[in-house]
Amino acid sequence: MNKKIKTEAVDHLFDAILSLQNKEECYAFFEDLCTVNELLSLSQRFEVAAMLKEGKTYLDIAEKTGASTATISRVNRSLNYGNDGYELVFSRMAEASEPDSEQ
Questions:
Q1: Diameter of the chain measured on Cα atoms
Q2: Which residue, 90, 49, 44, 42, is CA-closest to 65?
Q3: Cα distance between residue 30 and residue 16, in whole Å
């Protein structure tokens, strides 16, 4: 874990995020917290990560998301050498979408 980001303030932010109970609450909180461009950038990176995981090419990803090759490369580096945060979320999302998953 990156010790540069592990601060009391970041812990407090994550506690706030974990308190959200549905998408509408997420929209309300993140629209207050982030600028439109910041939120769109975060969502773009997440889409890039999903497409990289699916094996899409940089060209396909750039065309579909509008992300630069530099952004795609950064996300790819996180997928390959990061803290497995993307993988954790992708696996949980896959589990939650399974028809026989217990909720």
A1: 40
A2: 44
A3: 11
